[in-house]
Amino acid sequence: xxxxxxxxxxxxxxxxxxxxxxxxxxxxxxxxxxxxxxxxxxxxxxxxxxxxxxxxxxxxxxxxxxxxxxxxxxxxxxxxxxxxxxxxxxxxxxxxxxxxxxxxxxxxxxxxxxxxxxxxxxxxxxxxxxxxxxxxxxxxxxxxxxxxxxxxxxxxxxxxxxxxxxxxxxxxxxxxxxxxxxxxxxxxxxxxxxxxxxxxxxxxxxxxxxxxxxxxxxxxxxxxxxxxxxxxxxxxxxxxxxxxxxxxxxxxxxxxxxxxxxxxxxxxxxxxxxxxxxxxxxxxxxxxxxxxxxxxxxxxxxxxxxxxxxxxxxxxxxxxxxxxxxxxxxxxxxxxxxxxxxxxxxxxxxxxxxxxxxxxxxxxxxxxxxxxxxxxxxxxxxxxxxxxxxxxxxxxxxxxxxxxxxxxxxxxxxxxxxxxxxxxxxxxxxxxxxxxxxxxxxxxxxxxxxxxxxxxxxxxxxxxxxxxxxxxxxxxxxxxxxxxxxxxxxxxxxxxxxxxxxxxxxxxxxxxxxxxxxxxxxxxxxxxxxxxxxxxxxxxxxxxxxxxxxxxxxxxxxxxxxxxxxxxxxxxxxxxxxxxxxxxxxxxxxxxxxxxxxxxxxxxxxxxxxxxxxxxxxxxxxxxxxxxxxxxxxxxxxxxxxxxxxxxxx
Length: 650
Known about the structure:
Blueprint: E1 2-8, H1 14-24, E2 32-38, E3 41-47, E4 60-61, E5 67-75, H2 78-87, H3 97-108, E6 118-126, E7 131-136, E8 145-149, E9 152-156, H4 159-162, H5 174-183, E10 197-198, E11 203-208, E12 211-216, H6 234-252, E13 259-262, H7 267-277, E14 285-291, H8 299-309, E15 312-318, H9 322-334, H10 343-355, E16 360-362, H11 367-370, H12 375-387, H13 398-402, H14 407-410, H15 414-420, H16 436-443, H17 451-457, H18 462-467, H19 479-496, H20 498-506, E17 511-513, H21 519-527, H22 530-533, H23 541-546, H24 553-556, H25 578-583, H26 586-592, H27 597-609, H28 615-635
Parallel strand pairs: 13-14, 13-16, 14-15, 16-17
Antiparallel strand pairs: 1-3, 1-9, 2-3, 4-5, 5-6, 6-7, 7-11, 8-9, 8-10, 11-12
Helix pairs in contact: 2-3, 5-16, 6-21, 9-10, 9-28, 10-20, 19-20, 26-27, 27-28
């Protein structure tokens, strides 16, 4: 794991530029730094040494000097790829996966991407063809951003490195802000920064003089209902799933340093930890975060699982005030406004891993998207069930069963439940049917937008923009697969793997590894019949079946408890920090120009008086505070220009 930056074109003071870019992301690679300069290209690298510790320094060039790579991430199947290259007569100077990537590119060009099993982003300067090649892993685990200035292409693992380039400045993108306040994240390639873009997952960019092309090399696909899955036997499917997951964990245990594991107490991280515990000669080290509030805390399950596995277990308590205390740093690393506080405890957790002396942890992220574990999947099924009898007073009561961890929802009337979840209003053929309630509830927070921002947006609709980007085959997929695609293609890389994943872990120089996002496992899960994933209202059915002999019954049969953290109440009350009061003051809000100062003042007071606020108020509070912090951190001032943004489709 590492961070890198670079350019393609003619620049002044190349060495100084690369030094600034690399220093800006030194937290991603605290072990060493390096740089490479050619007449029309440059690469800088900050290294976190995990594989090939003694000989994997970067940027790395081949023997001829014609190919040079800066690489972030891991190629987990590098051992097998290396053996194949050796059989072809290739010779290696190092033991690193970086050299395997370099030689594989020399052999196949960008077609080598189809053979890589890993989480990665890289830049290869191909001097023979006079081109720069940038690529990103299939699922979007590792980040890669780019911008152009005066005919030069600049790129980096984090945007803060691009902001060291002369003439590149930080300015909020109003469209991106609207997307965050609707969809939780910008739609790539858009970022929170105007004119700075993100290379989309599973994409390769090839830049030559005068031309830049971006193309996908892989895509997520599902079978059509009129062509039923060939996978029909549950026992066989569970056996194959267990074999695939076991191999995915095995590959991700490869490292020249110890590998630990996050342990939330839920099915996914417990299963990964159980498999990993059997693959390490020493006690597996596991890490958890606990909460004071009962509705968020899962410590009892964490303790049970750690005891069952005999791991060396560490926890960090996220107490009142911890989220508020860490939040400015969280925004500095997310590099975007966010509407949830969930990244903050994970920022603390990765710090705990660093304190323990580890650099690598496994995590269970991805299982909910791949095997239909989220409430949104069950909720969509209930909504379709209710739509068949819209007058029923019994069917809407199922929503209470879906959300036992939300006490406020349990007290609502049947009429409220039916109205809130839109059981009689949404069109069943709406491509966003599964996510409409979430988008509607989240976007209600936009009522706090300022008049100037509303005028700038001119009626822009983030949800419809998202709908316009869906693949042609989308309408032919099963409704569950449509919902899974929306989660996996957009929210997973846009928020879960970014704001909660890579950015929080790498803030402390920690590499997260995601066995459930092994592309072989993802492709297998996509081929499964919907009822093997969501059986009635039981989520991740086939995964539970695969875990039968690996986990305690209490863990394996747990109903999904989504990872959440205290929100507005983390910031208000007797211990309210100065930056919160300053950021949300009427003067600061008015100066920032993004929100209605009077409305925000009322929201702030409401959250002080009613700590148990609803989703809209929580999302609005966190979103507004994070946007204010974003402006202060990245622009150094709060004023923002309200210019008509470029067309939303990129």
